[in-house]
Design a protein that fits this description.
Blueprint: H1 3-9, H2 24-34, E1 46-51, H3 54-63, H4 68-72, E2 75-81, H5 85-100, H6 108-119, H7 125-148, E3 152-156, H8 161-167, E4 175-183
Antiparallel strand pairs: 1-2, 2-4, 3-4
Helix pairs in contact: 1-7, 2-7, 3-8, 5-6
């Protein structure tokens, strides 16, 4: 499936075929494709917990407003924004840039300082926003990639973050930005037409902000 088809045909599916499995290879392919998503300074501030075990999905369901699709989906991915990615990944990113010719050795220190200045202290709001918006880029790329691989998805915002952190051993300073259910559309289910979308001229202005 080409990219335009995947974008047009991707839907948030509420009903998944239960009992389906996904191989490690296919799940790895999906996660790897999503890892090509862009990120600020290539810092990739995301982590993912793939939940496939039936008992673990049952636990996750209790943290996600008892939504049935959490158990029925083949896998549920916990998408985590990681503010610590600056410290964890900065040196590797700069080494890669240096080896590939994106920068010269004498500019490394200035790039390093720029990164530290731009994203602020580890516990700052700026750092949390940086991690969240980039993890969201990963999540959207994953959903498009899933459609390209013949899988359906549903991004979920209805959950108790504290519960998920407790049950899945997620450090307090990480942010659970969404869950993504992945699987196949349930047999016999016909999707209704895509719901309301605004016209482009309702939200796009040119050259300066315009109140619509």
């Amino acid at each position: 499936m080409d990219t335009i088809q995947a974008i047009k045909q991707r839907r948030a599916i509420n009903f998944f075929e239960p009992g389906k499995t996904i191989t490690d290879a296919k799940l790895g392919e999906l996660l790897g494709l999503a890892n090509l998503a862009p990120s600020s300074f290539d810092l990739q501030p995301w982590k993912v917990i793939a939940v496939r075990d039936p008992e673990r999905k049952k636990t996750l369901r209790t943290c996600a407003m008892n939504q049935q699709k959490v158990e029925e989906a083949t896998a549920v991915l916990i998408i985590i924004a990681d503010p610590d990615a600056v410290e964890e990944n900065k040196d590797r990113v700069l080494e890669s840039w240096l080896s590939l010719g994106y920068m010269k050795p004498e500019t490394r220190a200035s790039y390093s300082g720029m990164i530290d200045s731009l994203y602020g202290a580890k516990d700052s709001v700026t750092r949390k926003v940086f991690a969240s918006k980039n993890a969201a880029l990963y999540a959207m790329t994953l959903m498009i990639a899933a459609k390209g691989l013949g899988l359906e998805t549903h991004p979920m915002d209805g959950f108790d973050e504290a519960c998920i952190k407790k049950e899945f051993n997620i450090p307090e300073n990480k942010l659970v930005i969404m869950l993504i259910a992945v699987g196949d559309l349930k047999s016999g289910v016909t999707l209704l037409p895509r719901a309301f979308r605004r016209e482009i001229d309702e939200f796009v202005s040119h050259e300066t902000y315009s109140k619509k």
